[in-house]
Write a structure and sequence with these properties.
Elements (H helix, E strand, L loop, with lengths): L2 H5 L10 H35 L2 E2 L9 E2 L3 H7 L2 H34 L2 H16 L2 H12 L6 H4 L16 H29 L3 H9 L4 H12 L1 H16 L3 H6 L9 H11 L3 H26 L9
Antiparallel strand pairs: 1-2
Length: about 300
């Protein structure tokens, strides 16, 4: 073995104490049953969908099930509708997560810097949209922008494009704009809460030292605060991206996938429930699951954050 290779060898890890082993054992005993139930509830639908995706299977003819291997996946991946819906899903995911990250960080700064007497009130007010059920929120946004029952047109009638008869859900760009706005309004508080926990972990000493060295507010924010809360940002982006990629409720209620607003989740629903093509619908669901896994892996690898900390 070369000297350079020996130089890069990791130092031996410290032995694990008996107390730490006991705490780990207790943790598994307490969380093990819940973990087993969650794993069973989560894995069974995935395995069932993977199994059904290998068959030509319609719910109206359950006895005509025929094994066709990967033919359903080939049918889905060669269909232009799938790629169009994938683009819509990616667009919604990227735009909403990016905007929510900026707004959520701003709200987190406000809550973090507020005086102690107002922190509880601010957090309660900011978290109100996140506490509303998604279906209720989607119906509220739909009725606000609907051409018959909405009041938004009267607010923005002074704009060149907007008028009393402007139909927000009559074309792709405006419908997607409302859908993404409703998503941003609903889930930005979730991002702000995660980022607030990250701000609480930033040592005040680092900011004070940078201030003494002459760094301005923006420089301290870019070089001290944001790098110190990298783990919280990664968790917020991963959690929100996985949720946004599976968007269903808002699209189903506002447009039902019309005018080029259909997402992959809605496509899987229509294929399985409306057309009763269980095999094809299961294949779309499996592909959706793989896409979610890829998003998680890419995000975690991209941020390069070690969440485990030191061993033990």
């Amino acid at each position: 073995m070369s000297t350079s290779t020996q130089g890069r060898r990791r130092p031996a890890s410290a032995p694990v104490s008996d107390r730490l082993k006991s705490e780990r054992r207790l943790g598994w005993l307490l969380a093990g049953p819940a973990f087993a139930v969650m794993l069973l509830v989560t894995m069974y639908p995935i395995i069932q969908a993977l199994f059904d995706s290998l068959f030509s299977y319609r719910l109206t003819a359950p006895d005509d099930r025929e094994f066709i291997g990967l033919q359903n996946y080939w049918t889905v991946l060669t269909d232009g509708v799938f790629w169009k819906d994938l683009w819509v899903t990616l667009l919604i995911t990227v735009v909403t997560v990016a905007v929510e990250l900026v707004l959520g960080f701003a709200l987190a700064l406000v809550m973090h810097s507020a005086i102690k007497q107002l922190r509880g009130l601010l957090r309660t007010v900011i978290l109100v949209p996140y506490g509303i059920i998604t279906v209720v929120s989607a119906f509220a946004w739909f009725y606000a922008f609907d051409i018959n029952t909405g009041y938004v047109n009267s607010w923005f009638a002074w704009l060149p494009v907007i008028g009393p008869d402007f139909n927000w859900f009559g074309q792709s760009w405006s419908a997607l704009l409302v859908i993404m706005a409703s998503e941003i309004w609903k889930t930005t508080p979730f991002i702000s809460l995660l980022l607030l926990s990250g701000l609480a972990q930033v040592p005040n000493e680092l900011g004070e030292a940078a201030k003494v060295d002459g760094a301005g507010w923006w420089e301290r924010m870019v070089k001290v605060t944001i790098p110190s809360m990298k783990a919280a940002i990664m968790v917020a982006v991963v959690f929100r991206a996985l949720d946004a990629f599976r968007i269903f409720d808002n699209i189903y209620i506002m447009t039902n996938g019309q005018y080029g607003t259909e997402s992959l989740s809605l496509l899987a629903y229509r294929t399985s429930i409306t057309r009763l093509e269980i095999g094809l619908g299961s294949a779309i669901s499996v592909i959706l699951f793989i896409c979610v896994l890829l998003i998680a892996v890419v995000a975690i690898k991209g941020f390069k954050v070690d969440l485990t900390g030191r061993k033990g």
